[in-house]
Design a protein that fits this description.
The chain has two domains: 6-160, Leucine-rich Repeat Variant (Alpha Horseshoe); 176-351, Serine Threonine Protein Phosphatase 5, Tetratricopeptide repeat (Alpha Horseshoe), CATH 1.25.40.20. The longest helix has 23 residues, at 6-28. The termini are far apart. The chain contains 19 helices and no strands. The chain is mainly alpha-helical and 354 residues long. It has helices at residues 6-28, 31-44, 49-61, 66-80, 88-108, 112-124, 129-140, 145-160, 175-186, 193-202, 205-213, 228-240, 245-256, 271-278, 281-289, 304-310, 314-322, 329-336, 342-351.
Length: 354
């Protein structure tokens, strides 16, 4: 048996005391505090699930109140949202660790709202069809109308979900993700939707690819103007007064990863409108090939073709016309009054059939 000297014994006692204090602090922290810590670790690219996420899971096992339980469910659901921006490693860990606990809460939770929250969380976190079927069955046998209504919503959701599960992007981290995470940590880049937007704006295609490989959702963001694709196109091209090689490569990486080119803002603009305004023919061509609507008219009556002509991008305008974009009589009249160069005038004539 090993005998410890006084210094070793003191160090061991200090370590044990610090560990106990950390556990006690974690137990005393609110779900909101635990969530904030987890978010910071995720954003910095230093997240360790057993250290940064497990305390939130622990609240599900022994909450101090119904309020804390519901708050913990909400925070876990947000971090593990199948369509959210957390790395796949985070989503997978939270889904794997919380699934049996959420099923138990759905069946025996202290309030109807906690039971309903548990059912909804499993859906949004991308649980498998088998798990969702189990959750729906539990909710269907609940004595409360509210919880049973969650079951009906879940059953309707299951009818439209893919065979593999609610979300194909909830996967355990593979070698590619692990390499990407290591590369991003080395560059001191956080793994977050915010970093994806920044790297997209900068036209750094390599960093964008690494962030996507690390599990950041290519379509994270609440709308068109909050998407990585918008930052690459409108802000990226706008900052460089046209498309650069980096912009083009970045847009191609985002498209290949499944960026949604059909999103619209409140005025009905799509990403092609932004490209027509700020970029050049290569990005316009890439977006059209990906399915962006060339015939879209926004709430102000403007089309991508009209925008490209007004912003003096005849190369983009010629691409749009070659792909089928046209102008009606009123649009042609307005543009003829606004542009003066012969090349743009000729494009207007072609696009209006005159």
């Amino acid at each position: 048996m090993k005998h410890f000297n006084r210094l070793e014994s003191a160090a061991l006692l200090t370590l044990l005391f610090a560990t106990a204090l950390n556990v006690q602090n974690a137990q005393a922290a609110s779900p909101s505090d635990l969530y904030a810590r987890a978010k910071r670790a995720i954003a910095s690219g230093t997240v360790v699930p057993e250290r940064d996420l497990a305390p939130l899971i622990a609240v599900l096992r022994g909450p101090s109140s119904d309020e804390d339980l519901r708050s913990a469910i909400d925070k876990i659901e947000t971090l593990a949202d199948a369509s959210g921006s957390s790395p796949a490693e985070v989503k997978h860990y939270l889904l794997e660790q919380s699934t049996p606990l959420l099923l138990n809460i759905a069946a025996t939770g202290p309030s109807v709202f906690a039971r309903g929250d548990a059912v909804t969380a499993l859906r949004d976190m991308g649980a498998s069809r088998a798990v969702l079927d189990q959750a729906a069955t539990i909710a269907e046998h609940d004595g409360d109308d509210y919880v049973r209504s969650r079951a009906e919503i879940l059953r309707n959701f299951m009818k439209s979900m893919p065979a593999a599960g609610a979300a194909a992007d909830v996967k355990s981290g593979g070698p590619r993700e692990q390499l990407a995470v290591a590369a991003l940590k080395k560059r001191k880049l956080g793994i977050s939707a915010d970093q994806l937007r920044r790297s997209s704006l900068e036209g750094n295609a390599a960093d964008v690819q690494a962030l996507l490989d690390a599990g950041v959702n290519v379509n994270s963001g609440s709308g068109l103007s909050d998407s990585a694709l918008y930052f690459a196109v409108f802000s990226g091209c706008g900052g460089k007064q046209g498309e650069s090689e980096g912009n083009v490569e970045t847009v191609n990486v985002l498209i290949a990863a499944g960026a949604d080119v059909k999103r619209k803002d409140d005025n009905g603009n799509n990403i092609l409108m932004s490209a027509a305004q700020m970029c050049g023919p290569r990005i316009v061509t890439a977006l059209i090939a990906a399915g962006a609507d060339i015939k879209l008219t926004n709430g102000s009556g403007m089309t991508p073709l009209g925008m490209s002509l007004l912003m003096h991008h005849p190369e983009s305008a010629e691409v749009l016309v070659s792909k089928g974009a046209r102008l009606n009589a009123s649009q042609a009249q307005m543009l003829n009054a606004s542009v003066t160069d012969p090349r743009s005038k000729a494009i207007i004539q072609r696009a209006s059939g005159k």
